[in-house]
Design a protein that fits this description.
The protein is of the alpha+beta class and about 200 residues long. The protein has 2 domains: about 5-70, OB fold (Dihydrolipoamide Acetyltransferase, E2P) (Beta Barrel), CATH 2.40.50.140; about 80-190, no CATH class. Helices cover about 45% and strands about 20% of the residues. Strand 2 and strand 3 form a beta hairpin. The chain is elongated. The chain starts with a strand and ends in a 10-residue tail after the last helix.
């Protein structure tokens, strides 16, 4: 997979559906066509900061592929502040469960550690995407979220602007969030006893 780069869209003809981006410190322009822009994104505008892969275009000139517009809040889960709010709610519910004596403190420690692990893993994958090196599979990232790392995964998606515009990934993330919320809620309500509970 090619390395992803960031650049500014310096020219854009919305009627014709194309424009040009210029890399920081560079003079050569990169051709950007509207068909290469993520369909979950709004229409590009001159001045937008974008992220993309560079591929050979017509006459061998550089062209942009798989273009994301940075700083936009689109996708299945709209504003990214929702990711932060969801992470905070999950931590609050976990704290309530501990205060009620429904889950042991070691479980909360593991939950936080897994969140930290997820944060580091997402950070690596984002960096790998930019450098065009070995990536961590989406299934692996989701598995880490599922097995306790969801809070870190939500924070990482917000902090690194990673996976947030891919609707299928956001749908899977939403399923993981609902599962964790249901489980923590059931534990706190006493509907499900925590296994291996020690006094």
């Amino acid at each position: 997979m090619s390395a992803r780069v960031e650049a500014q869209l310096v020219d854009w003809d919305d009627t014709r559906g194309f424009g040009f981006a210029r890399l920081p410190g560079g003079t050569e322009r990169v051709f950007v066509h509207v068909k290469s822009v993520n369909p979950n994104m709004p229409r590009p505008q001159a001045g937008d900061q974008i992220e993309f892969e560079i591929v050979p275009g017509r006459n061998g000139r550089p062209a942009a592929k798989r273009v994301d517009i940075l700083g936009t809040e689109t996708g299945l889960i709209p504003p990214l502040s929702l990711h932060l709010a969801t992470a905070a709610i999950l931590l609050i519910v976990l704290q309530v469960d501990i205060m009620l004596g429904k889950v042991p403190l070691w479980f909360a420690s593991v939950y936080v550690l897994m969140g930290g692990f997820a944060l580091v893993t997402y950070s690596w994958d984002k960096r790998a995407a930019k450098l065009g090196i070995w990536r961590i599979s989406e299934n692996t990232l989701l598995a880490i979220d599922l097995f306790g790392g969801i809070v870190g995964g939500l924070l990482a998606q917000h902090m690194f602007r990673h996976k947030r515009h891919k609707s299928s990934y956001q749908a899977a993330t939403l399923c993981v969030v609902l599962l964790h919320a249901a489980l923590l809620g059931a534990l706190g309500a006493g509907l499900v006893p925590f296994p291996f509970m020690v006094s």
